[in-house]
Amino acid sequence: MLRIHKLVSTSLGIGYIGKGGGTVAAVAVCLCLYATQWAGGSQLVLWLPIITLLLTGVGVWSATEVEPLWGKDDKKVVIDEVAGMCISMLFIPVKLPYLCAGLVLFRFFDIAKPLFIRRLESVEGGLGVMLDDVLAGVYANLILQILLYYKVF
Fold it and tell me: Which end of the chain has the least Cβ crowding within 10 Å, N or C?
């Protein structure tokens, strides 16, 4: 079972890239969303909230399970970036300008950790690993919603 948690927490091995793995994981989400839309999978937008909820829940579980092995919020654990990037794109059209803006906004909030995001890292276990990225995704999504409302793109 630990192998499965390693696979999930590293987002199918992306976390083993090392430094920059979180960015690679977020870019992978963008590429998957874009490819699915480009291939005619517009239904993905309808399923994204469910997929995001499942990824977040499984991410909390897997991050909790690998923590004794790798330590608190190890850089190999990138499922939090995957879930956070999905949150960034909830209810946003899957178009290249929004994907790029979402990626930049999410990574900004995830790396800089403003507006109480850093405090969430102190939460114990996998929940603490996931919460800061969840909030970073929420902040990115709010800004994207404003950009969408004002038809910036």
Answer: N
